[in-house]
Model the fold of this input.
Amino acid sequence: MLRLGCRFGGMVLLAVLLLCGKAFCDSGQQHDAVDYGKNKNWSMLPEKTVHDFDVFFVHPTTYGPPANGKYTASLDDKALNAKTDKDSVRWVTAAFSDSCNVFAPRYRQVNIEVMMMGDAAKAKYLETPVGDITAAFEYYLRHLNKGRPFILASHSQGSNVLLLMLLRNPGLLDKSKLVAAYMPGWTFTDADLARIGLRLGRRPDETGVLLTWNTVGPGGVSPTVLPGARCVNPLSWTTDQKEYPASMDIAARILREDKPPLVVPHFTAARINDSGALEIPTPRPEIAGQLKMFMGKECYHRYDYDFFFDNVKANAKLRCETYRREHRP
Done:
């Protein structure tokens, strides 16, 4: 069953980054399948592999309103592709590229306006990205991976799509090759983890585990935090509710439009709260004033990777090194 619930409140339009599109065009006709044998259908595809590990990355929503009746993005939209490449794919995968060859498919994402639709309509549109990413991952495994161990990485809509892909195709993922799955920005419950056969990470050097978090401030409510949400703290890579200090945050790297990234060493403390969200103190005013709070006050969904960027980078390297040791001939 597809999980469609989210908290709307005053954030309905702001839940941009949650749900996805479908293999039907807006008139109800079925789209052609995406050919992932064509380079144009990949945001990032290495000319040659230089690492012993890969990362397969599924980007979050970059297709905003107005939809003008076109609720599913076109893969031929050059402006949207350029935005996606710059502000999402290249940005996030930089946390993995020192350790991994980067494979990032394009897919037909949904516009924010889908969030205003009823459940039946949303369920229809959810099929497109799930089908696209399933096809992309199958192509990657058959033609591009060459037996290398890999990381799964995603954010928001991308994490939702990957979850649905794994729920529908539990045998598709070779868990013996999985270094880790970094999938913040969406709710994963114990039931989800059991159905996809992955356990939540509890140590910084574990392999074959799933890592997820949704960042909020004091009193913050995120539409991506649903009942039963589980969380891993990216400062400690544990699941306890202890607050870990800002000294453990190696550095935040905060993306800003038309400006250099804002790099802040030891940016924030963090703890897992009773709702299963990752709660941080409100950033100091000179930083908070530079943030884009599209999803409401104290909801830092956009910055799930940014606030802990160097921690993710160091941890990906550590887990790759651990995997290498564990599988040494």
Summary: The chain has seven helices and twelve strands. The first strand starts at residue 42 and ends at 44. The helical segments are 78-93, 119-125, 127-144, 157-168, 190-196, 285-288, 309-326.
